[in-house]
Batch of 3 targets.
Target 1
Amino acid sequence: MPLINSPAELEQHRREILAKRDPRKPSVSVCAGAGCLATGAEKVIAAFNAEIAKQGLNAEVTTKGTGCPGFCERGPVVVVGPEEICYLQVTPKDVPEIVAKTLKEKKVVERLLYVDAATKEKAVREADIPFYRNQERNIIGNNIKIDPKCIDDYLALGGYSALAKALFGMTPEQVVEEVKKSKLRGRGGGGFPTGVKWEAARSTPGETKYVIVNADEGDPGAFMDRAVLEGNPHSILEGLIIGAYAIGAHEGYVYVRQEYPLALKNVSLAIKQAGEHGFLGKNILGSGFDLTVKVHRGAGAFVCGEETALILSLEGRPGEPKPRPPYPAAKGLWGRPTNINNVETWANVPLIINKGADWFTGFGTEKSKGTKIFSLVGKIKNTGLVEVPMGVTLRDIVYKIGDGIPRGKKFKAVQTGGPAGGCIPEEHLDIAVDFDELIKVGAIMGSGGMIVMDEDTCMVDIARYFLNFLAQESCGKCSPCREGIKQMHRILTDITEGRGKDGDIELLEEIALATRSASLCGLGRSAPNPVLSTIRYFRDEYEAHIREKRCPSYSCKELVSYYIDPEACGACLLCMKRCTSDAISGGRNLIHVVDQVKCNRCGTCFDVCPAKFGAVIRLSGEPVPGAIPEELRVVVRKKAAQQETAKEAR
Amino acid sequence: MDTAKIERIIDKHHCEASALIEILLDIQNELHWLPREALELVAGKLQVPVSRIQHTATFYKAFSLVPKGRHEIHICMGTACHVRGAPRVLEVVENLTGIQPGETDAEMKFSLDTVNCLGCCALGPVMEIDAQHLGKLAPAMAADLLKNYD
């Protein structure tokens, strides 16, 4: 590939790519994001390649593995072009039919379409599916059109044109000004205005400056950044190069956690391709501006998402945060001015430069502009990635896009913001989701994790879960965080295991306050949020655990017992066979009995007991009835009993 | 331990102390753990005290200071998996293998670790054995799956 030396050559190259591509040519795009790969997307792609060859369509159809379009719940997702027919949950078995019917005969395979559960209407195209229809997918919308290994796919969609516009049509100051005008706020969690951050790094004197992509997505249950890294890595690089130009940096890093092998691979390849095309390296696009970018792997520490810790990790040291100021903009990597932004923030930059700050501010609320990607997971029908304009209500996200709670269960709360966030109950579902509104109800935007919880989720256990996570991830450098989190975790564990006592809630609140005000970095300062928000909205659950030793959600296993109702037991052997601790005794015609000592409370018996019996009962906060005497355990089957009476009558 | 191989890894990173994490990750990928001798070798070549290398190797979760078994089990403890019952899956796996997260059994058959999110939340609870994802697990299913490995 010869270097592209000017915006005109870039445009020429794009035209050449488009000229080689016939938009009417049939194509097959299969999501090859990590979620779909886990459900077998690789086999589906292989099956398409084999079947297309077998049916002699090799020359007429292009097949590609693409980035994640977000509908993980129904993966693997396949989109057949040019009609953009969207097939869901495709298996290799379905492939011959798709090739024969859709690719050859231009007919739709009805059974693989999305069916609206309420109206029974089928949706042929992606845009017709309610999950997508209610989104605004500025950033992840292109994922299904792009093979992340193929830079031409990105260029065909106008990729790197924002870079050309910035380098040749704007001064660095104008770029900073445009980003400031867009009111873009950091998508990693802080919500700090990106343009202001850039300006600070730009105005600090210094020859050497650095730009960094924070791709250390550590929030458990969130994978927005991974989808962009894996699916559209060039959009991040383009943003990074524009940012480097604005700030005056000539070296950049992408800090990717090593738990994301595919993201590492795709980003590394993208950097290589960008260099070969002249978008990175010396004299970018003939502008005289230089930038080299390296990938650095994170080694598994949540705290390294904090910028000072990330910088230390880049320097090869343990990521223990430093007090700020000095901020990285003044003194960052190797003591030089440094600008760090999150993946999604960088990916927004090319859009802002290309379409203008006014276009960007057309989305969102007064103080939070643009769109935000959320990872909607947990007890929700449509698990996946959701991109919506700021200001959409939580209720719309959970019910219109997520389609509500599965199995007819009752909604309890949404947890946003990861371990630093909070739980939002039903009464606040109508708030507009933006940086400031979430803080008002005791949660935060964070990086975009959104975990839905139903009536079976215990809120005390959720607080304990996050504090356990944070206790493990606290670097231990400052004592308020190290000790505060540990003590809160200890109290929460006591409560969930039945050792809670009066005064525990007040003590938790006191420690929370101290940890919040005295910790060094964001990890410690926000660690009390999961505790305080659950106490605020679900104090009754805490009190039930402490006073009655009862878990209202039947989730804390030390407080739950499983008991088989002898009247209801059908002696079907199912629970006995599936029991993971050999705690159930019984036989073909013998009522089953749980040995309360052996039982490990895994709940399998409750899950497998057929609905027609519903014999397994969960008990919490009340004594377990004694086992039925052995001589009374024989089940008299109705049919057998009838035959018996009939015989006697004769 | 293949000393030459480890030396090659260190040389690839030009013996730079700033590349310590990258070097340790490469060794971890190669050997699946970080033996003491490897750490000493790194210390010598980078001119960095072993104590600093220990500090880094124990700080980051990607590193293991004990050898791994033939089959590496990772159980996802992300929030989505947690609310869908991952703790119950973990407990059953702990009971059946007789090991806790971070440990390897005496026969070197299984190593068990928890991870904070594998990013396939639609499949939760998820367990990964030898890089293969096993999703939508119930405790009894996880118990059955373990029987497929020897």
Target 2
Amino acid sequence: MARRTVQTSEVTEKVKQLCMSASWDLDDDLINALKEGLRIEESPTGKQILEQILENARISRETKLPSCQDTGFAIIFLEIGQDVCLEGGDLTEAVYEGVRQGYGEAYLRKSIVDDPAIDRKNTRDNTPAVIHTEIVNGDRVKIVLAAKGGGSENMSGVAMLKPADGIEGVRKFVVERVKKAGGNPCPPIIVGVGIGGTFEKCALLAKKALLRPLGSHHPDKRYAAFETELLREINASGIGPQGLGGRVTALAVHVETFPCHIASLPAAVNINCHASRHKEAII
Amino acid sequence: MKRVSAPFTDNVVQELRAGDEVLISGVIYAARDAAHKRMVDLLTRGEPMPFDIKGQVIYYAGPTPTRPGEIIGSAGPTTSYRMDPYAPLLIQHGLKGMIGKGQRTEPVVEAMKKFKAVYFAAVGGAGALIARAVRSNKIVAYEELGPEAVRMLEVVDFPVIVAQDCYGGDLFVEGVKKYSRPSP
């Protein structure tokens, strides 16, 4: 198969556009899930909060003012076709430059500090980005951006369960994690669950689960049923919008799985606030 | 719906109960993690704060940069528990109100009861909506902190809910209790 050349400057341009549009253009699947939430919410306070969230999304689309002031850490998933030849300079720097330009030109918040535990000095351009790269078949480059807020990320976690804990152990871990998070991660939340793999793999699965269209299901019917059960149990918690009580604590639970070691049952929960901002492009 | 004017007196605080929907107008200060650390360091050393804290309301927020010709960027609340290590000392020095999202921990609740202060929840992730309530925005300290600088905000009808009041009333507890059901 012939090689296809992609200029890294095209990557910069796409990343820039994705960063900008993610901040103000919330996807329709999310808006529809919020509207459904408003329909089923019983708490008057909860209803009022959901109305404000929907009104906020409308204002944000109309004015291109970011829907949330935490415009996030730019997490970039790159799927690079093995028949692609990248030209024109360093790919990582091309991604950073896209983030720099997007966050700069759209007046997005710069939320990254250079050193995590000692200096904590703002890098002032929202770089670096977190980049996850996969080599795949084909001659395209797929770029997926998740603009991830800090509040919901802080409520996430990993558990190295025993195989004997089984699916019940995973259920307990996920529900406890969400209950402990309460109103902190800006419910109604989207819950990404990774099961299997290794310590780092299950965390990545949980993050990738958040990228799925809301309400889509795991291809294995048993896990699809598990997603539905988890959602029901989380929404029976009473946490509700913003943690102030109500029916709608989560809009969706997405589970991703991967084979794992005979000794292990890793599980991860990655929580997304209702301002779930994901955009993708293909070059 | 109650309307209150900031800064607060003890009387205003004492009239608010968990669950009340409130519109705040007046002057409030936006400050978050890094600014709190600095302000508490100043108080601990006995040095003056960047603004007089008595009666004030602090909004836990770090807005997006202001676009040309506008008053403020997107300006929703950030998660409050991260300010919990600092809040009791500020309350002791006269802070009367806090606006954020998520539940406060016991030391903050105790300080709120002892020194009469109130905690409001604003809707997290509603930054474009809340920005409309802001009529002026001025950095008053720590400009070098970027999004974490301390800002004086003039607000009109900022919509909030009393989440935890000065009597120990807690909507996070009461609301969740009211709507929780046995696990299916």
Target 3
Amino acid sequence: MNQSEEDITLVERYFDEALSERERMNFAARLAVDESFKSLVENEKILINSIRHHGLREDLEFLKNIEKGLDDPKVIPMRSSRSWYYVAAASLAAILMIGLFFRPHSSAQKLFAENFQPYPNVFEPTVRGTSEPTKRSEAFQAYEQGDYSKAVMLFNQLLQEKEEAGILLLNGNANLMLGNVEEAKKNFITLNADFDELDIQSKWFLSLCYLKSGDMEHAKPILEELGNTEISYARKAKELLKEVK
Amino acid sequence: MNQEEIILKIKTGGQSELAAVYKEFRDEFLHWITREYRCSADDGKDIYQMTILIFYDNIRQGKLQHLVSSVKTYLFGIGKNIARENLRKEKKFVSIGQEKWLWEHLTDEPSQHIDEGIFARAKLALEKLGQPCQRLIELFYYEKKSIPEITDALGYKNPETAKNQKCKCMARLRKLFEQETTSSSTIFNHESI
């Protein structure tokens, strides 16, 4: 493979981000039609990725050595995994955020309807017939059965006795299902302010409350924050942008 | 240390900053990931190490210039993404395979096919390149150090010398890669006869 020195310098400058706007345009145009040039660019990319891989590998070994000198933190077992929803909510945040920038405000209600799903009861799943029902078990059971009015009534009583993150989250969801947007907002704001856990969920549902009430100004920054929590979203956002253009 | 200071430290610093960030969020992250995804502490550590490397690399490559949320939120977001992808592919939680994740992080497009043979040859070429060339191009392409910074770090006479040296090292690497490719296709041709 004999490449001209000129082409090699051009490719090197491209990867060093040293090309002018005009040079970049010419570069892209040539890449589309010149197979030999394309192969040169691909090989350079492979070499640069290999260099970066080597660096990452060395840093990984460095972290592994650090890890050897550290004690294991105590692991607290959890009752139930809620990862699927946690992840789905954050993913939707990115998509919804893009939607907000390209749709008129009037469609906020539609976006809300498309994206809102009540959070499942993963905190105290109902086990029927095992013991005498209590106010607490009835509240969770009502929520699971979709009896949101009863759930809200009982959750509010429980919250007056003691604030709990899981109950605040479910109560907010039940209020949203009933259309009590202002009550739901209060639940999620309290959850976000008073607890360290469930912060992403509280922000996600709070953003939906703002959407439901057509308050785009407050919804956008929360969705932007959620959309920035995962690196893969940048790629998804780019793909979506291409589609909407 | 605020978010901007952490980013600046990572950009300008070295492995000591990497170690500091690793230790700062480690316990909280491991608590969370092992509970959330029901994985072992060792699997949690594998995910955390990848998370820190991706965070670090995104800053160095200029993909992450300022944080809207906290560093913790960003790290948990990356960790969640790794765990989720792993669960999606494997149906249940198994060890993540750090090597595979390193390559996936390096490829830009989701559908981009990774030709392991080509990368193996590139790695061989890089090994044969030797020092100080290997260190120089790693500082430039991996750590994203500027030419003046490399001049100081490796003790070159001036930035122009460092820049010329970088070009020479890359030319040598291209040649070694070409040799590896030629020799591997010769072996392949012999084997197929």
